[in-house]
Amino acid sequence: MGALVPLVLVLVVTGGRGAHHDTLACTQGLACRLLDPDVLCGMEPQGPPHGLALSRLRLEPALRCTGPGACSPCLEARLRLAVPRGTGAPRIPAAEHGGDAARGSPEHGDPSAQHNTSGVLLLAAHTYTSSRCVAVEVWVPIGTVLPGQLLGWVTFRCFEAPLGSELRVMAYTTHGHWRLSQQQRVPDCSWPVAQSAVPQCQAPRLQVFPGPKEVVIEVQGAMPGHSYTLRLYHNQSHGTGGPGRVVTVSSNMSYSLPAEEVLPCLCLQVWLETQDPLRATLCPFSHDAEAWQRLWAHSQLVLHTKAQALTCSLSSPCDLLAELIPCWQPAPTGPCQALPSLQYSAMEQASQELGGLQPHPNLCVQVWSHRQVRLSQCLRDRALPGRPDDILLLERHGNGSLCVLEGGACTPLASFTSTGWGQPGLLEQELRQDVAMGQCRQIWHHENSTAVTLWACPIHQYQRARWVLAWMGVLLGAACLLFLLLLKKENIKGWLKSLGVNYSSEAPLRGQRALLVHAVEPVAERAACALLASLRPLGLSVMAAPGGGSGAAAWGPLPWLHAQHHRALRGGDTIIILLSPAAVAAAHQWDADPSPGDVHTAAPCEAFAAALSCAVPALAAGNGRYVVARLEALVPVVPPVLRAAPAFALPTETMGFLQALAAPRWGGRWLEPYVAAVAEGLQRAVGE
Fold this sequence. Notes:
This protein has twelve helices and 34 strands.
């Protein structure tokens, strides 16, 4: 007696529909065939309520290949069938067990077909966009079996899905009497079998060959006949800034990139043009010094003064580890003194407010990275309240003390003296009154802190009053002198002549002092002597180092130069650093940051290296008046360690050099007669 054994098996898989190269297999004792590779999903085959039980569902990884090295990952579904308990079922004779999958099929004309019973399996694969269902027919031999006895396996191979995706499988019988469910991930490229067979797991390699004008990028290991995509992009935490440059290649190739486009965050990616491919990524320029210099040249700092608040924006093609430090710069060529307690972390591609700092023409913002000033922007040319000759006062709350920020320090008002003001403390009372009466502008005061407040106070009003008194005295003296000369008319002509001589011989730098630091080498010593000789008619008192005579010989270069440098800083003198080839070598050696105990022994540069140990820390802090003079015929550029000071190429920029020595006391018209003499002396010294 035969009975129809209907069975429905449904498998739900997350993945795309591929080419149908399915296979079906049954174990010993069962026979099966694929009725239809594409049937309408949801249409279950009708049958009696009883049937076979689902004992176990198992998923195993597999590959579906259309050729050597052209495979795709899939999962093989295996379902074990059994006889339900509590039902009479045919028993399978042991003599009838066989291994032929199609044995007993009516299509094969088996005369014993009437001794078999058939059932139908429905296999359904569903993705988020499509569904696929497969109908399978199964034959079971007639015979009596015990309830719960296992019959065998039905294996369907296989359901495709992308690498590493999740696959969910459900199996149930007609009328939902039996149901199984399982979820498994499709293997990714870590599966050893897939690494050599799946094209997506065979990403090519990238090799970079830098050159002086261009960088050559080689794609190696590409499979012939396959297309690849090479992408160049900027890797940033806030986004890549666009899709980048994309190049399509079909085999091993070389791609040239101009060197000016190479930045530290430039990265390369290459992948096979298939669904969900592996990508080979390389970022080879993150430690390239030239790429970092090019990055700072492409970066920009912009200051904004909207709504009486100072904000800034830093734009750069790459992420920057930098700090924003506001500073005060009264003179365009002078040092910029950092404001105390004001330091901000730079945020690229975003406008950030600088903590309640009020705009003033003397305010600047510097971008510091790795202990160097990389970018600087000032408000000097903006139409803002305040004057360049304002002084900056720091008020400490609690004790009510006031001090003036200048020269890298905060000088108490009782000790403060400005140029041409005579005795210290002359303006103390007036400045205290201006702060108390609101005549000074509050530059900075943090809302959550009451420690200090910064004030910008004008002093031009006091200068104007004193200049009026001074001019009245001058006019009165001139009137008296003219009256006396009129008494002796015969001496008027001689007096005018002597007046012209005295006027032309007036030294514009009389009363000022300077310390000239140079290396011990012949060309530097000749240039130093030429400078001493040409600056003497201007009235400038210059001391040369290491030309200190017995002082340097007795103390050694380091103590003697430290003493002279301290004296120059304390007296407000100008420190001239003369750059010759030996001096540049000493500066580069000093900037190399040797390890502890590693002492440089460059004999020609010992004195200049000792001077650098004094000057560089003061330059970094914005202390003192420094001027760098380089012999342009021998020194093309200023070393990085000295770039914080104004620099001039001699003898071409002699006028600017003299103005830096004289500022702000004299204008350029008083220095023009001396420019030619200084330039000729230097040209002659360097030429010798």
